[in-house]
Amino acid sequence: MIDHLSVVVSDYAKSKAFYVQALAPLGHSRLIELPATHAAQGESAGFCHADGSDFWIRQGDAIKPPIHIAFRASSRAAVDAFYKAAIAAGGKDNGAPGLRPHYHPNYYGAFVLDPDGHNIEAVCHEAE
Predict the structure, then answer these.
(1) pLDDT one-digit tens code per residue, 65-94
(2) Which CATH code of 3.40.50.2000, 3.10.180.10, 3.40.50.2300, 3.30.420.40 fits the domain covering 4-124?
(3) Which end of the chain is more exposed for a tag (fewer CB within 10 A), N or C?
């Protein structure tokens, strides 16, 4: 439904390194970088998924209060891999991988805070 989403980050280099590592297990890869002269404000990096959805970060004054973004994962193993990669990239635990049956019986998610405190989630809705 959503084609792309853009989030302003306070430390572009730190956030870019975090998202490169954290989103890799979910099938995202850094697609393009735009220098400040080409972006509306500050450097930008776009991360693309094979389904065509894009997630962008841009240098500037980080969004406050922090927001919640959930990325769909193809499997529970991908959720687990996202969590490990995001923690290794400097993310802070905000909910280890596991079932969240209060959402629905197959809701399997993990939550990590990014460098600006945004709640980044990977979620799989499939039964395994």
Answers:
(1) 999 999 999 999 999 999 999 999 999 999
(2) 3.10.180.10
(3) N
pLDDT at position 34 is 76
Name the helix (H) or strand (E) containing 16.
helix 12-23
DSSP-derived secondary structure letter, 25: G
30-59 b/e (C-beta count within 10 Å ≥ 16 → b): eeeeeeeeebeebbbbbbbbeeebbbbbbb
Distance separating alpha carbons of residues 116 and 90, to the nearest angstrom: 11
Contact 53, 4 (CB under 8 A): yes
- Looking at per-residue confidence, does 37 or 51 come out higher? 51
What does the domain layout of the chain look like in residue ranges? Answer: 4-124
DSSP 120: E
Q: Of 20-29, 39-48, 50-59, 113-122, which gets the smallest average pLDDT?
A: 39-48
- CA angle centred on 54, ends 48 and 55, rounded to 5°: 105
